[in-house]
Amino acid sequence: MAVCIAVIAKENYPLYIRSVPTENELKFHYTVHTSLDVVDEKISAMGKALVDQRELYLGLLYPTEDYKVYGYVTNSKVKFVMVVDSSNTALRDNEIRSMFRKLHNSYTDIMCNPFYNPGDCIHSRAFDNMVTSMMMQVC
Fold first, then answer.
1. What b-and-e string marks burial along 101-132, b requiring 16 or more CB atoms within 10 Å of the CB?
2. pLDDT(25) > 70
3. What is the 8-class DSSP label of residue 66?
4. Which domains, from first to last, does the chain contain?
């Protein structure tokens, strides 16, 4: 189960952060912020190794005692970070990858909206509903 989902701009400021309401929200903001260093390291390593540039999924960024943090980066360097409860062993890498693809498709829909200014915080009911469904989908 995803306990926190964040969309981070190219300049590393949050466009959208949503976490489970019963948890400590500040802890998730800190976790997302610290994961950006790992994302930058993985992106620079991919550039040096000339890995296939179509692969946007970064995989597991780092595990903690309670959570696992996964990353995804778009071609425009917008980063998606997902924090998953580590006690959920039923969640596979393929499922995480498909959740990121679904998140990326929804983000693309927002960017195609002519009333959205790129770089602004995301305030979309459809995006909120999609994120909520992702957070409740895997229990």
1. eebbebbeebeeeeeeeeeeebebeebeebbe
2. yes
3. S
4. 2-137 (3.30.450.70)
CA distances 22 to 4, 54, 60, 86, Å, are 11, 37, 24, 17
DSSP 72-132: EE-TT--EEEEEEETT--S--HHHHHHHHHHHHHHHHHHHT-TTPPTTSPP--HHHHHHHH
Helix (H) / strand (E) element for 57: namely: strand 57-63
Phi, psi angle pair for 69, to nearest 5°: -110, 125
Q: Give the tens place of pLDDT for each residue, 87-116.
A: 877 778 889 999 999 999 999 999 999 999
